Every structure is written in C-alpha cells, then in structure tokens.
Amino acid sequence: MSNRVNIARTEPEAYKVLMGVSGYTEATKVPKQYRELIKIRTSQINGCAFCIDMHTKDARKNGETEQRIYLLNAWRETENIFNEEERCILAMTEEITLISQHGLSNETYEQASKLFDEQYIAQVIMTIVAINSWNRVAISTRLQPAK
C-alpha cells in the first residue's frame, strides 16, 4: 500500500481545522487516559492501523497497562478491568462510532447522565467525533504505522 494525498500539505486549512478540534479535546476535562481509550477503541472499530499504533504508544507513555490495551476490544467481557466511567465512555464510543447501526442509545445516554454533567458528555462526544475524523483521513490516505 502506498500513501495517497497528503491532506496537511494539499489542504492545510482543512488540516488546521481538524487539528483545532483535536486541540480542543486535549484541553477538556476528559482525562488523558480516557481520551486514549476512546482513540484506541474507535481506531480498532474503524480498522485504522496508523491510529491504533499511535494511540497505543501514547497510552503506554501515559501509564496505561498492556493488559487493558489488549483487553480493550473485549471490554464488555471484563468485570474488573475497566471502571464504571470507562465502561460508559466505551459504550458511547462504540455506539457513536457505529452510528449507522443505531447511534447513541437512550440507555447509554442515561447512564452517562448519571455519571457526568452535560459539558463532560459533550466533551466525550467531541473526542469520539475527532478520532473518527482522523481515522477517516488516515484510512483514506493510507497512512502507515512506522516500522
């Protein structure tokens, strides 16, 4: 596979906008550890090798354990690995990423409303939206993980 168009070079204004959204998500109240779980899980669902590689490395640098990274795609099958907030955020991540199936369910939204305020929920949603956008850019342009 070869790389295709370089969005940053070809359409720098569009790239800056997407970088701006990512910058916004980095400055939210959502903890870095949660943001990385969102990025990894979204990238797993979308099959984005470039982003899985990047965000698993970032998660490790920030203290995430190998066990949790390996079990992330089977988080629903674990009972003591991910806490209640993480499980809710992962459910939101899957439902929003797989929006064509049914979108963010009322059940998941109600659970989020019990755990988080509206601002935090909005910040989680925007974090999910941002990584979905990056996955689409990386996959469409065939970005490859470094060897």
Highest CATH level, the class: Mainly Alpha
Mean pLDDT: 96
Number of domains: 1
CATH topological fold name: AhpD-like
Radius of gyration (Å) = 15 Å
Distance between the termini: 14 Å
**Approximate strand percentage:** under 5%
Helix content: 55-70%
Biggest sheet layout? none
Number of helices: 8
Question: Helices and strands, in N-to-C order?
Answer: HHHHHHHH
What is the CATH H-level superfamily? AhpD-like
Ranges where pLDDT stays below 50 over 5 or more residues in a row are: none
Strand segment tally: 0
Named at the architecture level, the CATH assignment is: Up-down Bundle
> Structural class, judged by helices and strands?
mainly alpha
Shape: globular
Summarize the structure.
The protein is 68% helix and 0% strand. The protein has helices at 7-10, 12-26, 32-46, 49-61, 66-71, 84-97, 106-115, 118-140.
